[in-house]
Amino acid sequence: MHIRDMKRRDLHAIRALAAKTWKATYTPQIPDDIQKKVIRDAYSSHEMNRRFRSSITLVAEENGRIHGYAFFSPEKYSEHNAYLESLYVDPAEQGRGIGRSLLHTGLRRFEQPDHCRLIVYKGNKSVYFYTKEGFEITGERNGDFFGYPVTLIEMEKKLNGKG
Asked: Which residues, if any, are the signal sequence (predicted)?
C-alpha cells in the first residue's frame, strides 16, 4: 500500500469511493437522499479545487487502485495544529491498516502539532478506530446536516506530549 498526494486525475475514483463508503457507513443514520446531496456537494469540482489549494489530500493506492483517502487542514485558530476533515477506507479493505497509514502520514505533514481534532457522526463505528488511535471524545453537539438532524462527536488527539 502506497500513500501519496491526491491528484486531479483521482477525482472520479474518489467520488465513487466516497459514495460507496458513505452508503456503507451512514445508511443506518443518514437517509439516502441526504447522502447523495453530500457526495454531490462535498466532492464537487469547486469543493475539491478548494481542498487542493488549502488541504492535505492523500490517497492510499495499491496496484493502481485507490482504497482510501484523507483530507487534513490546518486548524482554524492555530495553523500548526491539524484538523482531520475526512478519512474513508473502502469497506472491503478495512482492517488492513490503511486508515492508520493515512492518518499518520497526514499528521507528519504538520510541523510539531500540539493536537489533531476531528468531528464524527454519533453512531459511526469509526469512533472505535479513532479511540484506538489515541483520540478522546471532547464533546458532543446537535447539528443540522442538509436539513437532517444529526449528533456530532468532537474528538481530539494530543501529539508530541503537548496539548
From this structure: none
Determine, yes or no, domain membership for 66: yes
- Cα angle, residue 65 at apex, residues 59 and 70 outer, rounded to 5°: 15
Between 146 and 105, where is the model more confident?
Answer: 105
Residue 122 DSSP symbol: T
Task: At 52, list the grid cell.
Answer: 487542493
3-state secondary structure of 91: helix
pTM of the full predicted structure? 0.91
Asked if the structure places residue 32 within a domain, the reply is yes
Domain range for 89 is 2-158
Q: Is 31 helix (H, G, I), strand (E, B) or coil?
A: coil
pLDDT category at 25 given cuts 50, 70, 90 is: confident
**Closest among 1, 2, 20 to 12, alpha carbons compared:** 20
Identity (one letter) of the amino acid at 113? P
CA dihedral 149, 51, 46, 92 (to 10 degrees): -60
Sheet holding 78-89, edge to edge: 2-5, 56-62, 65-75, 78-89, 115-121, 148-158, 136-145
